[in-house]
């Protein structure tokens, strides 16, 4: 189980990226309006929560501010996941 704020948000970002990807697959594949609705709401609420968690992390200096920029960009959770992984790699180097 992740033990730090960084690791918990990192895991949640990956989960939200999976929800977003599932939404895209359902939408592009035309697999049903109900599935789109459910996944759309899950993604929307999840993305807002992720943005708030990253904002809190930036204010606590857990994340660099560009992670927040990537999170609220049109790339959404995919951008956040990439930015968090880059931040994790930079943490290992230091």
Radius of gyration: 14 Å
Structural shape: elongated
Q: How many helical elements?
A: 4
Kindly estimate the percentage of residues that lie in beta strands according to DSSP.
Answer: under 5%
| SSE order | HHHH
- Classify the helix fraction into a percent range: over 70%
Which secondary-structure class do the elements indicate?
mainly alpha
Number of domains: 1
Largest sheet: none
Q: How many E-type strands?
A: 0
Whole-number average pLDDT? Answer: 92
Low-pLDDT ranges: none
First-to-last CA distance? 24 Å
Provide structural commentary.
The protein is mainly alpha-helical and about 90 residues long. It has one domain (about 5-94). It is about 80% helix and about 0% strand. The protein contains four helices and no strands. The protein has helices at about 5-30, 35-60, 65-70, 75-94. The two termini are about 25 Å apart. About 25% of the residues are buried. The mean pLDDT is about 90.
């Amino acid at each position: 189980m992740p033990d730090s704020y960084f690791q918990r948000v990192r895991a949640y970002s990956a989960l939200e990226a999976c929800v977003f990807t599932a939404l895209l697959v359902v939408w592009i594949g035309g697999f049903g309006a109900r599935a789109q609705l459910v996944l759309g709401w899950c993604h929307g609420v999840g993305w807002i929560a992720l943005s708030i968690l990253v904002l809190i992390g930036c204010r606590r200096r857990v994340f660099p501010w560009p992670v927040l920029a990537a999170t609220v960009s049109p790339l959404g959770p995919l951008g956040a996941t990439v930015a968090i992984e880059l931040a994790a790699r930079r943490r290992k180097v230091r």
